[in-house]
Write a structure and sequence with these properties.
- The protein is of the alpha/beta class.
- About 35% of the residues lie in helices and about 20% in strands.
- It has one domain.
- The strands form two sheets. Strands 1, 2, 3 and 4 form a four-stranded mixed beta sheet that branches. The chain has a two-stranded antiparallel ribbon with strand order 5-6.
- α3 runs antiparallel to α4.
- The longest helix has 14 residues.
Length: about 130
């Protein structure tokens, strides 16, 4: 399976670049596939699981076009769709609605926000409000 890199994930986000510089690492060392996911790290295990299942289907021509948060939910866009890939993606999207996007908690998770919707637990919502 191929992951198509969009311009937005060719380099780390600005704040990650700053942290990478302060930690003494180069920009190239800081970039990973996770930098291409346009969502919080709490959903990374769900994404990894879904993409592993999709890869196991064995379609060599399949490419992951984009992985992101949209309207508080997980979205995974592929170059090829069929009933099997759609079922895997739908299951991951449904699980993400019950999983905190920031920390991965499954306790007291709700769709939150006033403008930009996010799926967060109580703890992460309180942290977000303090920023």
């Amino acid at each position: 399976m191929t992951f198509i890199h969009h311009g937005a994930c060719a380099e780390p986000r600005q704040n990650r670049t700053f942290r990478a510089t302060r930690a003494g690492r180069t920009r190239a060392q800081e970039v990973s596939m996770y930098d291409c996911y346009e969502c919080g790290p709490g959903w990374y295990p769900l994404i990894k699981d879904a993409l592993t299942k999709i890869d196991a289907l064995g379609n060599a021509n399949l490419a992951v076009l984009q992985v992101k948060e949209k309207f508080g939910g997980l979205r995974i866009y592929l170059s090829i769709h069929n009933d099997e890939t759609d079922a895997i993606i739908t299951a991951a999207e449904q699980e993400a609605l019950k999983t905190c996007e920031d920390c991965g908690s499954k306790e007291k998770v709700e769709l939150r926000g006033g403008g930009w919707l996010r799926t967060l637990c109580n703890h992460c919502e309180e942290r977000r409000k303090k920023r």
